Structures are given as C-alpha cells and as structure tokens.
Amino acid sequence: MNVRFFRLLYYRIPNILKLLLLVLIAMPFFGYLIYLIEPETFPSLTDGIWWALVTGATVGYGDYVPATLIGRLLAAFLILSGGGLIAFYIASLSTTVIKREKKSQEGKLAFHGTDHYVFIGFNERTRQLVHLIIEYYYNKKIVIIDRTLNNLSYTKLPVHYIKGNATEDAILHMANIKAASCVFIAADNQKSDYESDTHTILTTIAVRGNNPDIPIVSEILSKKQIDNAARAGATTIIRSNDFMSSLFFHELDPEVQSTPFEDIYHLLTQQKFVHRAVPSSLTGRTYTEAVTSFLEKEILVIGIIREKDYILHPETTYILEEKDTLICLSKRQH
C-alpha cells in the first residue's frame, strides 16, 4: 500500500522536479563522503557540500582541493556523474520553459488569475478593445478564447490565450470563468447572422451556467435574436448592426455638417457613460438645474431615463422625478 502510494507520487512529480531532487540528494552525499575521507582539508560538512556543488557544476573555484588519491578519485567520479547530472537538469529546465512558452502561444495553458476579463472570439474589434483596456486599465488581466487562431504570442498582444470552443465547460474552466469579472462575446463575422447569433446565444448559456452572477456582454447581429440572448442570460446586448446602420444614416444626411463617426469614436474613448439616480435635492427641479449641479463635479448630464424611455437633450424646463435616471458623461482616468 505504502510502496504503491510512493510510486504513484513519484510518477506524478514533473521530471524537472525529479532531477532537482536528485541533484539536492547527490551534492550533500558527495560532500559528506569527502568530509569523511579528508577531514583536514574539509573541516566541516558545509565545506564538503560546497566543494561538491562547485565541482559537480564544473566551476572549480580551487578554494578546496582533495589531497589524497581516494579524494581525487571521488572528485573525478563527481565530475563525470554530477557534472552531467547538473548539465542535464539545466537543459531540462530550458526545455520545460520553451515547452511552456509554446503551449502558451498555442492556447493550451489554463489561466489561474482572478478578477479578469474574458473575451470570446478574436477579430479586429477584439484587438482594438484589448488595446483600449491596456491604455486605460493597464493592470487588468485579459483572457481570450478563440477556436480559429493557431497561436497568439504574448509579445504581439499581452493577453492569455486559450484555444477552444467556449460552449464547452472544459474550455471555460481553463479560463477560470468562475473568478472572472466580465465576459464579452463577439459576433463571428465569417458566419451568417443567424449562425453567428446562434453560437453567441449558446456561448452565453454556457457562461451563465458556469457563473450565474457574472456580467455578460453579447454581440447580436439580428433583431430576432435579441430576446433569445436576453433569455440566455446576457446582461448587455450589443446590437452592432443597428448601431452601424444608424451611424451610416447620420453620415448620409445632407444637412449634417459634422463627422459623426469621428465624433462618436472620440466621445467613447475619452468619456464614459454613467447612470446616476436623481438626488433628493434635485427631485422636482428642472433639467437645467441638474446640469448645473453635476457640472460642478465635472459630470455632464445629457439626458434622462424615465420608465425605460430615453429622453436625450430634454427641454431646459423639464421637471425631474424621483425615479428618473440621469444619463451622464464622465471623463476617463488614465
């Protein structure tokens, strides 16, 4: 029973640790032998271990040198065996590091951090989103799950990459989904809208099943699938086609003397939307009074949400109610 346990433990130990353990046993052993053979030259056991270590590593400082024939034979044996052992250990260590780096690039290593973002699906939007997060929240850890990339080097994009299908629990566990702070599921532009939305909804269900409380941002291309995405557990649904259609319409308006796309892009990169409940001091007051009050805090009120209705740029005399929500813009902090 005990022999079986130790054999099982031995085979479970990584080879690099086995070699290190062998080195840690061999060097004190040779040091103890030289200490017994030549106590005058090696007055303490630590001196013998030090000599064994530098001799086995073929460094040979020369501070301790065996004087007897037996001591020199022991030194020769140590050089032939211990030197090879240490060299093999260093080579194995290098190989392990290289293999780990290769596995990391190929998306085969699990992520063990916490409070991280998980991005599912990799495309140019995801790449730009990563750069924005690094710019404004440089300490935030990011995990990308994608099944199409062959590899993703950390030097090209400083994220932890996991290759696989995010609808599978095993892949989500590799991303440590239970400890993540938010999940973003990107649409697959290489598929039809229906296929892309179906995969997004299935992924949303899988994520929600593994973490009932995590915020999930899902990108849906078809209006028909918005309700299904909400039922699947999406916290926020990004309707990218609706947004782009509205933006194109704005660009085509002959009366518009502006650059809507550039304006919105810089607005979203430099500012962030914030929803604030109406303070009791502003209940029954006008929209203008709310704007003036919040401007003192460097927050710009641009509209109101009342019973799920969005009222942007209301009249200056618009009266605020207790259950209203203020739509605000606040500066991003680097």
From TrEMBL:
GO terms for biological process: monoatomic ion transmembrane transport; potassium ion transport. The chain crosses the membrane at residues 16-37, 73-91. It is found in: Cell membrane. It comes from the Bacteria. It is a multi-pass membrane protein. Its main location: membrane. Residues 114-239 form the RCK N-terminal domain. Coiled coil: none annotated. Keywords: Ion channel, Ion transport, Membrane, Transmembrane, Transmembrane helix, Transport. One of its GO terms (cellular component) is plasma membrane. It holds the Pfam family Ion_trans_2. PANTHER family: POTASSIUM CHANNEL PROTEIN 2-RELATED-RELATED, POTASSIUM CHANNEL PROTEIN YUGO-RELATED. This is Cyclic nucleotide-gated potassium channel. It comes from Oceanobacillus oncorhynchi.
